[in-house]
């Protein structure tokens, strides 16, 4: 395994997962994470050469008039009313979409390469893989070499700050099966995905200008997924995202008032209350939060105090893979269409981990927030006036009813 600046594999990964780095034709970073013993042992090796004839990712471009102009780097502007930074990435308008009624491409850029296939713009150089990670070709945020990220002003007015959105966006493909579902992946493969989260968290935390690392998964056409393939992403913000900022304000205020950790005390209170606990193993507890917003919402917390994914030990990473597998399976069974088969649940799985440099990080705690806006087998929750206009949430159910349904789907304790 290659040496990395900040990532050190644990005993399992050192023996059973091989990370192979390469560079795509346009200069983006790419990593294979193999759990297949033949690749781990080096009996087989991965294809490292990207055969596409791609221009350098930051090369000058042609505008509508055919004139050469600099690469259209994403910028971000600060909303003076809320203080939020809003990234703006015009290049994303041209990204391929292969899922849903707005599909613009027939090929799948996340699939392994298929020799002889007319579509040859896939991101994976090899004809097979286990798990891969690579920089997004159409990033919402990216650091462009030679570009300053100093603050400037829209129209020269100090009301409106702007600067380069000098973050980073990566894609994690969980499996080569284009038609597969994350819920159906074996726990061993999800263990490799967990290692990918930890690997990228460790490495990206040393990169210039990154303040928060956010691994997440969008799943399902209704969520807005543009590529139908089992995959997730890692957004690396050059700022603290608004939801994290709100959480940090509350966790810090709680510490100053009580000396305790708010996230730990919430977990312990849920354990004591018992009613909303839905899954549990040696290292993790999953519960429906007492003030859940979504019609299906589960938070997953480590038993041990952990700040970030790369701080998890081997047992915690295995137990997380087991927990995530059980959560996805029960999520798919949550809504009954009348045939007892459940459904492919649209969901977002969002990792909240301590920011990199903010001093308030020490009073935070790693947690996963899993939710779906589906409220019945044939209905979804639309975010209308109150939610979208005022961020004032109106729940269509209660946390106790959500937990009750999970209890019908299987035992709480899933440890071997």
Automatic annotation (TrEMBL):
GO terms for molecular function: UDP-glucose:hexose-1-phosphate uridylyltransferase activity; zinc ion binding. It is an enzyme of class 2 (transferase). The keyword Transferase applies. The keyword Transferase applies. Residues 99-124 are annotated as: Disordered. Residues 248-369 form the Galactose-1-phosphate uridyl transferase C-terminal domain. GO terms for cellular component: cytoplasm. Keywords: Carbohydrate metabolism, Galactose metabolism, Metal-binding, Nucleotidyltransferase, Transferase, Zinc. Residues 73-239 form the Galactose-1-phosphate uridyl transferase N-terminal domain. GO terms for biological process: galactose catabolic process via UDP-galactose, Leloir pathway. The active site is at residue 231. Its cofactor is Zn(2+). InterPro entries: GalP_UDPtransf1, GalP_Utransf_C, GalP_Utransf_N, HIT-like_sf. Its EC number is 2.7.7.12. Belongs to the galactose-1-phosphate uridylyltransferase type 1 family. This is Galactose-1-phosphate uridylyltransferase. It comes from Bifidobacterium pullorum subsp. gallinarum.
